[in-house]
TrEMBL record:
It comes from Methanoculleus methanifontis. It holds the Pfam family DGC. This is Zinc-binding protein. InterPro entries: DGC.
């Protein structure tokens, strides 16, 4: 079964990192990721996606866990939850994510999916 990835997609470097990582995984996961949706979407739109998802992975940028909180407000618990800062990526303001950070977070997601 494929995962739908919900990204926090915030304005900080780690929030932007989740969106860029999700987009890369959608292209490169060999079908393991079926959709990548920003948690910042309107609630009704997000709810429609998660209600039809096989499995849900929330990719949050930091310990604020905005993506997971948005799903929980809909009464949905993700199957997997990954936080970029827990993967050794520093939250440092509005900087653009680096390619090595995208690679690191992508590897953590794929390891969790393969579990």
């Amino acid at each position: 079964m494929a995962f739908t990835v919900i990204t926090c997609s915030g304005v900080s470097n780690t929030g932007k990192l989740t969106a860029q990582t999700g987009a890369m995984l959608l292209r490169c996961s060999c079908g393991m990721i079926e959709a990548c949706i920003a948690a910042t979407r309107p609630t009704a739109s997000l709810e429609a996606f998660v209600r039809h998802a096989d499995r849900i992975l929330v990719l949050d940028g930091c310990g604020d866990c905005c993506g997971r909180k948005k799903l929980q407000a809909l009464g949905v618990e993700p199957h997997l939850h990954i936080v970029a800062t827990d993967c050794g990526i520093a939250k440092n303001g509005m900087a653009e994510p680096r390619f090595d950070e995208i690679e690191r977070l992508s590897a953590a997601v794929m390891d969790a999916i393969r579990g």
